[in-house]
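Hi R.,

Quick one: here's the Amino acid transporter sequence you asked about.
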Amino acid sequence: MGANQLNRSLGIRMVIVVVIGNIIGSGVYKKVAPMAAELHSSGWVLICWMLGGIITLFGALSNAEVAGLLADTGGEYAYYKKIYNKFFAFIFGWSLFAVIQTAGISSLAYVFAQSFNSIFPFPPLLSMPDFNIGGIFYPFADFNVKLTAIILIILLTLVNARGIKTGTWVSSAILILVFGGIFLIIGAGLSTGHSNISQAFDMKTANNAPVTFSAVFTAMLAAFWGYQGWASVGYVGGEIKDAKRNIPKGITIGVFIIIGLYMLVNATYLSLLSIPALEQIYKGGNQIAAIEAVRTFWGQNGALFISVLILVTTLGCTNATILSSSRTYFAMAREELFFPSVARLNNAKAPANSLLYQCVWACLLILSGTFDQLTDMIIFAVFIYYGATTLGVFILRKKMPDTPRPYKVWGYPAVPAIVILFCAALFINTIFARPREAAIGVVLMLTGVPMYFWFKKNKKQQEAFEQE
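And here's the predicted structure, written out as tokens:
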């Protein structure tokens, strides 16, 4: 094996761990509150979680066909080169670096830091909450929380620089604790006298106000943060045994498990907290819905328990996201479409320089915004590419009709068509419902255009130099 080649060391069990580890993070604890504030109905909140799960599953099934055909390190970056062209593939990879994955790491680390601070409060640092850039970015607001998040990212980057097996075993251990904790909350929460399960399915809204199409889509924007991350397993395709079979299987199993878990745990929250209470939590800004739900039946000890569980969960998801995301930039750098040093592996066969670049940018993004601002920006950006990958199912069936496919998407052509239409609708709705987040996301993605031509120019200069 070459010195600059990744090890194929992950089997199907670890593929499922990577899928679930990249999904289950902060959304399962936080996003029920903004959804309640948008819909004013617990029944509609559950419907949006289910719709989000179904669309995610449809997208995962479509992605699985493409992954089964083209699996390689870099995930969609590798797929898009064959479906579209190198330019589009680069813009995707740059979008991961500029906003999608790095902002995901930042958001998860931010929630970890919030929970850590609720258990072990830090004294205020750099108390300049009103200092801002353009009235949008407040880098020193809650700086003690942000500093904790930055330290977490640095530490987990160092862990993953020790190799992929170290990173995945950390994720496995954390997931066991997370599932145990969440099922304990579901069991205890639904069996307590404080629970009113019929309340969770109540379709009535405050003042009988109608639930609008736009409100459903905006609420689903929050739900999709909870489901975000399943495609990340494709980024480590070059380190998976029998990747063309194990990636589709791992994605499908992982997403099914998450949908079932999310429906149960959100029904538990909604049986314990009324819609007005959830709306108040959302307005409070620094509260987490899951903590308040558990506090209703376990008091302060329960709040401490779930704060620790959130710590463990977001630790695991941050770790899994750091592990998988860095592989795309490594794949780009090998083709001289990223910073050259990123193409090198360390002695542990880990892309250490890719991890370093990712770490620095993710830390800067933490200083840029709040949790909800970052997550809305991510979902807006990521659904552009979910739609592009799903469209690839149709394109590849025409381009490569006779190529063996280990997996074919169930319900073709209806299932991938539904995903594409949904992605387009969510994209348009976000522009109107969250214009600031949409604009920031687009600007960050479009910085990839001049970067592409800069890298291409450097590549030509290097080739000319070598020929002299």
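The chain has one domain: 12-460.

Cheers,
M.
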